[in-house]
Amino acid sequence: MIKTRLSTFLTCLVKNLHIRLYYSLSELTTGLISLLLGFFISTGLSTIPGQTGDWGIIAASLIVAATELTSKIIYSNQRKLNIKINLINNFKIGITYGLFVDAFKLGS
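The structure corresponding to this sequence follows.
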């Protein structure tokens, strides 16, 4: 096969597309697992301290402090974030979403 600029361009395009899709899909799956793990953990965070009655305020303040600290770390940087920081952010979003769902379940 003759190496033309078009064939070289298409070969490089296919290689780059394969690499980007592979890493994007692995980041997507780990992000979804982190989000669902946060949703699962939020159920325990809302029920376990509520059983004793005296840990509710302490648990809520720890959750709010962790959420605010994570938000400060993530949204203060303008550079591209590390995948570990994105996973922590997805975990935080999962916890927040799970607590909202539990609040709606208790309110109905």
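Residues 30-107 form one domain.
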